[in-house]
Automatic annotation (TrEMBL):
Residues of the Methylmalonyl-CoA mutase alpha/beta chain catalytic domain: 132-416
Name of the protein this chain belongs to: Methylmalonyl-CoA mutase subunit beta
PANTHER family: METHYLMALONYL-COA MUTASE, LARGE SUBUNIT (PTHR48101:SF1), METHYLMALONYL-COA MUTASE, MITOCHONDRIAL-RELATED (PTHR48101)
InterPro entries membership: Cbl-dep_enz_cat (IPR016176), MeMalonylCoA_mutase_a/b_cat (IPR006099)
Amino acid sequence: MSNKLFTDFEPVSSKQWKTQIQYELKGADYNETLVWESPEGIKVRPFYHIDEAAEPLNVSTEVSGFKIVQNIFVHDLDKSIARAKETLSRGAESLRFTLENEKVAIEKLLTALPLETTPVYLNFHFLDLPFIQKIDAVAKKYNATIYLHIDPIGQLAKDGNWHTNLDTDFNTLNDIALKCPNLNFLSVNSDLYQNAGANAVQQVAYTLAHVNEYFNRVATIANPITIQVAVGTNYFFEIAKLRAIRLLFNVLAKEYDHKQDCHIIAVPTKRNKTLYDYNVNMLRTTTECMSAILGGANAVSNLAYDAIYHKDNEFGDRISRNQLLVLKHESYFDLVNNPADGAYYIETLTEQLAEKALTLFKDIEANGGFITQLIEGTIQRKIGESAKKEQDLFDNGKEILLGTNKYPNKEDRMSHDLELYPFIKINPRKTLITPIIEKRLAEKLEQERLETEKQ
């Protein structure tokens, strides 16, 4: 900010503030009473002052340009096209399609959309060069902005297997880079680490190491790399996390002479969404979307309040989309770029997260690199340790989820037939979503969706 405010008042130094705080504590220890430590080992002070502030970090966040993304699963093509057009007319600004297989008539899907004005994300878990070339041809013809969620390393991290094998997958990526110049084809599924239980430092470091593998193994990366990020509930830390990712990505990219900034698409985490008192999930996703926007996400795809136990439905999608519309058009979150600049607390958090993540990144590279550590199980073990710490905090009431482990309603019932989900323990203190429960939920929801389509 260039305008100096409150110049008519005498400045108060950091030392004066500390003296006054110590007086008000009436003998209580300042560090033990007011300083707390995050799971990442960052000590958070009660106030931050210009006396102790470092130079502002150079993190450019164009908040004014963030897009509202609507997710659509493509099964019946005509219904998906109709739904896409409807959501665009009701506030969505970008579309993300999940494709089952390469048999989808992709040209029909894409050409039915206003591609000149609507960015499109395509999420699929297969590698097929001829299929991707069809997408590239459409992108070239219509001057479309299309982002592909292609991430073989993410496939390995999530499933334990490559699409084919390491060499074949990366040969295909290099072919795509040469033959499909009109697509943003590389993606890093960083949301996987957050949802599995990694802390903020690990998420930033693993994202950076993940990106580094692509820089090392793909000869030509001319277009922006998409980074999918899951945003948690720690409001200011999450703002700082996104800023740290962008900051370190640009430092790393410079080393490879990559001149494009990363493209961040953010979604609320599934880790803190509850089956009991499920309407509170709307409050959680709202603050998480706020963190995503203020942290500089290029696009935000909100999570429906009932996403963890219910198949996609019009009401849940409409509410999740309207949350973003309120933030954008009624709360004016899109009017100021770089909104976190000059906030000493967020600047300090960003710097500390970046420093700790860079140290961890260097350790990963010194011990064989990210893919090696995935294959050896080191990354999984470290995330498992962090997830256990978080679960212990939750079980002990130190990690608060209102309506679940704090002020639970003993008469509360989940909104669906519990008999359909016998694998979920009916215990309000055990509702953090684990990967096993998430997988079984996904299988159940997919079964319901297919049955609905047949009717």
